[in-house]
Amino acid sequence: MAEYTDEYDFLGKLDPDSSDSFSTQIANRLKAAILTGKFAPGETLPSNQKLQNRFGVARETVKSAIAILTDKEKLVVSQQGRLPRVRVKTHRTVELRPHVEALFQDDHVSIDFAGFSGETLKGVMLEPLDRIRLGELTPQDVKLRIMVSDMRMPMSLPVPVDPAEDPVRVTERMARITDRALESIVNDVHELEELGLIKSGSVEVRMHGIAPVFKLFILNDSEVFFGFYPIVQHSVPVNGDRVEVFDPMGKDASLFHFSSTGEDAEQGEMFVESARTWFDSVWNTVASPREVG
């Protein structure tokens, strides 16, 4: 038993009081280990017997956990007669949410975000922050740097399709949406700190006059998610009217994942370093601090 505990100590222990079944808890711990690089792409997972001994559960419980990773999460490939292995990844589009949720299982959480309004960042943080409130996640500190386009400045996007329309009406609408998203994030993180659920919570916001054309997430300085905003034409409500605009559409942005660890680490490390350099260069030059909340 000690052998398994030492070797796979990072998998933690099962919580008998959790509302999740043991199979779901095991799947979540393995998923977090995969997404954080403790099990690299192409690497085999521990055998069913090792996982049984590690967690003190029945064989069927482990099989159910592996099935979740194989059929639902698509993180693992299982073949008859072979140990399950982590699916080999490429720099294809990926879902951001599970990576952010896995990040919050670390003691130290750092996220740099650059993009349009911050609504995507708010969305992917909802569940991890709720799980901190429930005591299911216990990071020690959370540090966010958020850098967005200042819609109160003249901006080429979003813009009305009809040049006769007043563009300020459109950008003021986006400014209000941005304010609401940022205030929600700032208030949630500070609330967790005030309640003592995290030791330190820091949110810095800076704004700039660069039109939004892509979104960028940097997780703990080691993972990057990057995607271009497609420009779409649609109508939006502006002070009771419907206005046709050319709009960067965040929900339609496909995100690509780059990591400085695991498979293709050399190329991933180059992209991560380039993204960090770009972020810091804008942060420290043309972006201005903005008080939120």
Key features?
3-stranded antiparallel β-sheet; 8 helices
Low-confidence stretches: 1-5
Q: Shape, please?
A: elongated
Please work out how many helical segments DSSP would assign: 8
Could you give the count of β-strands? 12
Q: Output the strand order for the largest sheet.
A: 11-8-7-3-4-6-12
Fraction of residues in H or I helices: 25-40%
Question: Alpha-carbon distance between the termini?
Answer: 51 Å
Structural category is alpha+beta
Q: What is the CA-based Rg, rounded?
A: 22 Å
How would you sum up the major sheet? 7 strands, mixed
Give the SSE order as H and E letters: HHHHEEHEHEEHEEEEEEHE
Strand content: 15-25%
Mean pLDDT: 88
Give an overview in words.
The protein is an alpha+beta fold and 293 residues long. The protein is 38% helix and 23% strand. It contains eight helices and twelve strands. The chain has helices at residues 2-7, 22-35, 48-55, 59-72, 97-103, 119-133, 167-194, 265-283, and strands at residues 76-77, 85-86, 108-115, 141-149, 159-160, 200-208, 214-219, 223-228, 231-238, 241-248, 256-259, 288-289. It has a seven-stranded mixed sheet, sandwiched between helices. The protein has a three-stranded antiparallel sheet with strand order 5-10-9. Strand 7 (214-219) and strand 8 form a beta hairpin. Helix 6 (119-133) packs parallel to helix 7 (167-194). The longest helix has 28 residues, at 167-194. The protein is elongated, with a radius of gyration of 22 Å.
